[in-house]
Design goal:
There is one protein chain. The chain is an alpha+beta fold. The chain contains seven helices and seven strands. Strands 1, 2, 3, 4, 5, 6 and 7 form a seven-stranded mixed beta sheet that branches. The longest helix has 20 residues. It comes from Nocardia asteroides NBRC 15531. Pfam families: Acetyltransf_1.
């Protein structure tokens, strides 16, 4: 599986992705394109981390935004291209997430996902530990499932204030150092 396929599989039934693309068949087609474009826009800045399974295949993918690296226009353009007709549904969620981000420089975990058949084996935890180990800046992420909050709390992240975007609950989480 490519990194985009790993994320597509990991987010196949994610509440936010299900809101943006309610029809499962459409979501299955859209997610690989979304993640492919998002990965491409971040790889230029070295902010895509991969964990590999024992057989050498991609097990987990994390995409970050680091302080001082501005993805700006490229980020917006790839997002617009990937979302296509789903943009009107996605925009409130994007704006809601952006509004919760801290104003001070921070390490932002934009996305993390593990192949469904390898979940629970520590691959995502490895990616988070690796990135958090090399910096002293605060961190931030938005969990899209209440069930994932405890996982992120293990690394020191704390929910700031839950947010609702349409019918989807989001959990902004900050890591202060």
């Amino acid at each position: 599986m490519t990194p985009a396929q790993v994320l597509a599989a990991a987010f196949a039934d994610d509440p936010l992705m299900s809101y943006v693309w309610p029809e499962p068949a459409r979501r299955r087609k859209a997610l690989p394109l979304l993640w492919e474009s998002r990965i491409a826009s971040r790889q230029r800045h070295g902010t895509v981390d991969l964990a590999y399974a024992e057989d050498g295949t991609v097990a987990a993918v994390a995409m970050w935004e680091v302080p001082g690296v501005e993805a700006g226009l490229a980020k917006r353009l790839t997002l617009l291209r990937a979302l296509g007709r789903s943009l009107p549904k996605a925009l409130p969620a994007i704006r809601g997430i952006e509004a919760t981000r801290p104003s001070e420089p921070h390490l932002y975990l934009a996305t993390i996902g593990t192949r469904p058949d390898l979940q629970g084996r520590g691959y995502a935890a490895e990616l988070i530990r690796r990135r958090l180990a090399d910096g002293a800046e605060p961190g931030f992420l938005v969990a899209t499932r209440a069930s994932n909050v405890a996982f992120y709390e293990r690394f020191g992240f704390r929910v700031t204030a839950p947010v609702r975007v349409a019918e989807v609950a989001l959990y902004p989480m900050a890591l202060t150092r």
